[in-house]
Amino acid sequence: MADSLRVELVAADRLVWSGEAQRVIARTTEGDVGILPNHAPMLAVTVDGVVDVLTTDGETWVAAVDAGFLSVAHNRVSILSERAEMSHEIDLEKARKDLERAKASGANEDEASEAVRQAEARIRAAERAS
């Protein structure tokens, strides 16, 4: 019986984080999902939000991700999204300004609400890690 998960967080342009973990928490279209070793296989659609990884060393890594996919099989977790950013890479003040700009935007409603969700996820990730 395995006691860890092999996790890969992948953006369209790069591998964002990879390592061994005790647990992963991610937001899907059905709500938050927690994944522990020996989790049943699953495939889910993720939404803009935060991914929280507790490593086998006891460190917590947090990332802001765009919508994408999450796959779990044989103690391997793959999270694929168009964009993903580790919390320590996020400029919190810039993220807050991006949120205000998105809220005030006169862009079409779908684009504006997507920009708001992305900015909110970046802020949550940065705040959770600090």
Structural key phrases:
130 residues; alpha+beta; nine-stranded mixed β-sheet; 2 helices; 26% helix
Question: Which runs of at least 5 residues are low in confidence (pLDDT < 50)?
Answer: none
Calculate the mean pLDDT score and round it: 92
Main beta-sheet annotation? 9 strands, mixed
Helix and strand composition category? alpha+beta
Discrete helix count: 2
* Radius of gyration over C-alpha positions, nearest whole angstrom: 15 Å
Helix fraction, binned, reads 25-40%
Proportion of strand residues: over 45%
Query: What series of H and E elements makes up the topology?
Result: EEEEEEEEEHH
Instruction: Tell me the span between the first and last alpha carbons.
Output: 34 Å
Give the overall form: globular
Model description:
By secondary structure, this protein is of the alpha+beta class. Helices cover 26% and strands 46% of the residues. Strands 1, 2, 3, 4, 5, 6, 7, 8 and 9 form a nine-stranded mixed β-sheet that branches. The longest helix is centred in the last third of the chain and has 21 residues. The protein starts with a strand and ends with a helix.
Short description:
With 130 residues, this protein is α+β, with helices and mostly antiparallel strands.
